[in-house]
Amino acid sequence: MTCRIQCKHDPDDTLTVLASMGGDVQFIPPADGSDVYASRATARGFARRILALCDEADGVKADESPAEAGEEPRVGDRVRVVVADPIAPTLSERFIGREGLITRKDPGRGLPYLVRFGLGDHGAADGTWWCKEVAKVSEPVDGSAAPPPLNRFDALRKARDLVGDDDIARLISVARFLVGEDA
Fold this sequence. Notes:
3 domains; 3-stranded antiparallel sheet; 5 helices
């Protein structure tokens, strides 16, 4: 397992942490020796991943996740991403520690929570991302408000922008997909 955090000021600066064959944990700074800055929420997520890396290297089962410790998050809940997509860490690191709304939940998937961060497309920083583990939050951690859920009017407007025509059935289908239905 490898953990990587990207500097919020310079995306080329990353700090990488990995478990070595001897059981030690190796911290690899940026090649130029520069500092890596991250928000508190991102740093917390990074610290959790380092702890999970150490547990995995020791063969110890990690402590229960925040979702298991309390009430299971549901569609519409405001959440903070704890583990995004461990299979695609480079793509998903930017979502760890971020807050959004669960728009779809599929417990049968390895990544059961579809979290919306804004009105953007899937994979965009202001879009949606499938996440492995989330924690319910009542107040924003980073001082920003969670994005509002995409309402039907906004979803239809965005669908029209994406589709580029006035086929009502097609627009409704795309709008339903954007809000997490039929995804």
